[in-house]
Amino acid sequence: MGSNSANSTRAKCTDLQMPFQYSLYATTYILIFIPGLLANSAALCVLCRFISKKKKAIIFMINLSVADLAHVLSLPLRIYYYISHHWPFQRALCLLCFYLKYLNMYASICFLTCISLQRCFFLLKPFRARDWKRRYDVGISAAIWVIVGAACLPLPILRSAGLANNTESCFADLGLQHISMASSIGMITVAELGGFLLPVVTIIYCTWRTRKILQEFQVPLQNTKERKKALWMVLMCAVVFIVCFTPYHLNFPFFMMVKQQVFSNCSFIKSTLWFHIISLCLANLNCCLDPVVYYFMTSEFRDGFLERSSLILQSCVRCKDSALEIHHKKEDLQTISLEFLDDSKTM
To answer: What does this protein do (predicted)?
Structure first.
């Protein structure tokens, strides 16, 4: 009897509704969509111009922009759903958008880690950096996409059971398929170790090591500036990682256990589900924060962006000058026409 009561309490608490999540998700995605789309599109365009700069982690930055852009392009569908509470599209599209969210998260984590590690390594081993080949970065990036893509597949699969019963629901309203405790522990272990602990330790070490190099060695002014840029880039990777991904991964094991109905305390369950919503919103901010890594810390990117901006401004000025010139010519023609009419009347 007591066991049945506990199971019923867990089920009831797990199904607690969080009405604020719809407005919070919709607002977050609306605020992220335009800046994320513009920033990552511009970043991708400018970074591709410097693809030959093998010492600047350009390949990893390009892949980071692609990961962010893929998720950003799915945001309008998410915004529509959280405003209308209705999914009129195909089931596969719902699962694809769900998949892209987690693919973006873990691909971003991997590429931020690679950027930090490479910049730190090139500072520690400057002579090895000269022999570094661009194809190495391409190969590492391809391996990351394959591994992360395969590792994220179980997430939409576990949610697909909810679509079988209600095809008008998607995203947060999809239930989580019940799996064995061993499978849950395996997912939590892989996500926490491979997707959080190992990357965060690597990024923190790279930040500390890069800072230590700057303090210990006296180098020419030009090299000091380059090393400071590397430090700031690694530091920004750490900031993006801590702000966006740490809250989610701190809460993820408890969220999985709540969904598997391990806990029976309603207050704890409600707090876990509430924090899960907040942490997902923070995780989505990486689409806007990632461009900071290469915009403010990479001189080539800044120069390219300013160059493109100046070209756009020059084009606008030329268009404006042409418009004014046409306007003046029209006025001159009107004046000549009036003078001609006056002369005709006089005659």
So the answer is: Putative receptor for purines coupled to G-proteins.
